[in-house]
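Database export, one record per block. Field names are fixed; values are copied verbatim from the stored entry.
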Amino acid sequence: MTGFCRPAPWLALALTLAASPVLAASGPPPGFTLTDDANLAFTSPDGATKLQQYMKDGGDWDVKWQVWARRGDRMTELKPEQGYGAGFRFTNDSQWLVRMQKTGSGEQDLFLYHVENGAFVSATKKKSLSDLAWDYFYGRPETKTFAKLDYHISANLVKGTEEAYRWLGVNWPDNRYIVISLGGEYDKHPKNVAVKGLGGWQCRYDLVTGQFDVPAMFARENADALKWEIRRN
């Protein structure tokens, strides 16, 4: 009969550690302080997720912000790290989250997250939601030749995610769509024009299919948005 050899205690411990999953970070790294600004704290409609924003001031304008989602004892970072605090809106089912991220004076990006395995993760992977929206804008026949914007480039989330945009007079399914408004300005314009650019062009994003479209109800305002300018007196 072949004898059974019990592994040495140190070998058993090594095998146990090797098989154990690597624990995720439980919060922000040293140097980040939780902001006491109540306007930067958000809670999901179901109350399960609380968003906490932490700031680190490295001096010489080197300011970094991190956002962490707390669900019970579990904390997950909502990347990417940014230079400003952010605003957030949930869908009414608490499964989707849009981050309205200031990136500079009058400029903003959008990031989309979705609950997977009990935690919010990026829903658009390689690109931000705002980058995808701009790609869609410049890919349409009527906007392919629209001048590239120079400043105040902003992607905005139109209010209404929580009630499926009922205020627009629509009857869209709950927790299905978000509406995005794009805007910005460019330097080159006639001398009799003070500001010229894109004035709030709107599109809709389908959270289920990941596709953009432009409902007919936006057509007139979008046409005006392409011609937006402020003339000098």
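Remark 1: Helices lie at 9-19, 129-139, 219-225.
Remark 2: The longest helix spans residues 9-19.
End of record.
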